[in-house]
Amino acid sequence: MPNTPPSLFNTLTRRVEPLQPLAPPRVTLYTCGPTVWNYAHIGNFRTFLFEDLLRRWLERSGYDVFHIMNLTDVDDRTIKAARQAGKKLTAHTAPFTKAFFEDRDYLRIKPAHVYTPATEYMPQMIALVSKLLERGVAYKGEDGSVYFAIAKFPTYGRLSQLDRREIKVGARVASDEYAKGDPSDFAVWKKADAEDEAVGAAWDAPFGRGRPGWHLECSAMSLSEIAQCCGVQTLDIHAGGIDLIFPHHENEIAQSEGATGQQFSRHWVHGEFLNVRGTKMSKRHGNFLTARDLREQGIDAAALRLLFFQTHYRQSVDFTDEALEAATEGVGRLGEFHARLAESGKRETGDGPLGGLSVKLEQDVATALNDDLNAPRAVAVLFEFVRAANRELDKPEPPRSVARALEAFQQVAGKELLDVLPTRRAVDPATASWIDERIAARAQARKSKDFKAADAIRAELAAQGIDIEDTPLGTKWKAR
Ligand SMILES: [Zn+2]
Known about the structure:
Blueprint: E1 7-10, E2 15-18, E3 26-31, H1 42-60, E4 64-71, H2 76-85, H3 89-106, E5 114-117, H4 122-134, E6 138-140, E7 146-148, E8 172-173, E9 185-191, H5 194-199, E10 210-212, H6 214-230, E11 235-241, H7 245-260, E12 265-271, E13 274-276, H8 291-296, H9 301-309, E14 317-319, H10 321-343, H11 353-370, H12 375-394, H13 402-413, H14 429-447, H15 451-463, E15 466-471, E16 474-479
Parallel strand pairs: 3-4, 3-11, 4-5, 8-9, 11-12, 13-14
Antiparallel strand pairs: 1-2, 6-7, 7-9, 9-10, 15-16
Helix pairs in contact: 2-3, 4-6, 6-7, 9-10, 10-13, 11-12, 11-13, 14-15
């Protein structure tokens, strides 16, 4: 068990609080997953990346994390998209679920232990609605749908700090998404209409044929999974994007606690937005930037991870070409340093200045991440370490404890924690400038329509293990 438990901002109390799991070292973590109506926006992945770091840090701290993520494969948006595509719901969502997993792997996000597609949890959802009806906190409206009666749940609005005086008694909202200024009874089960039937999004239930409301899905799936794994009705951490606080998470609390009478989640953690600004990146998959746009343009996932971790998860990030370029450069420096350490004698052990620096790196990173997952500070500490260690390696007498430094560096920057080492082989500065010179010569040849010369340069680079690709941002290269 960790000596110092990590502290995290809790949206429920608006304070940074030490994590207090119900039964340590186990931590149950539920993160709201993608709605698979389309490819996930890069902003969605910013949330999934901060959750990935949270999970990695908890594991590194000695916790036994059970991570659940849902896949929203039935809701207003997926039904509408399936209808527009002229497909059945599952035929429409399946490729986007597959794409989500591919994008997750590209960004090196650790897979959740369980993924719960909503359509596979209908019995649990129906049971939850029955329970809410039984307990009198839900009722059937004259339109045939089942609504949650927010007036019957006294703590409704606590998470989003809603003024309860604004609650409009008797007002109802049927759509999955609505504004905070419109707190009304919301649908937990929607009576099937012709569109639902057409795409195959309707199920029989004792209270009428229909489909679950989006908010109900997360309550039913998370409660089902934690009951099964751990015999509990309370999550340790529930995380998601800040836009989910109202109404989604507020409603999840109402439905879950309304059914179990137990606290739904001890800690609520929310990540801020990503703003895509003035970027020249092409958007091939719709009108927003997706992870696969970035992958297809040869962007190293390490650069994206670094870019996101350079900002605290509770602050918004501007995604720009300049920020991406700077992060790519940073990743390059980490790669060069890694190569240098690895070459400086892997078997070198014993005490030396690098040993002291390594201990400090690990301690300072731990302090930063324990403090509300302060990744930007951890990143700064990492680059300070690289500078200090490079100075030691520059000295004529080779410093001892290189092996210790390599171990500490790999633990922080490598697979284990930040996972921000480059995918590409690092090349030395002389080779890099040769590559730049050859790419410039090729551009010149293409400009003067000498395609034979341009192809020859491509082949010359390929012979040296350098692949090039022409993108809207210029010619990119990758070392094999
Ligand atoms: Zn959710």
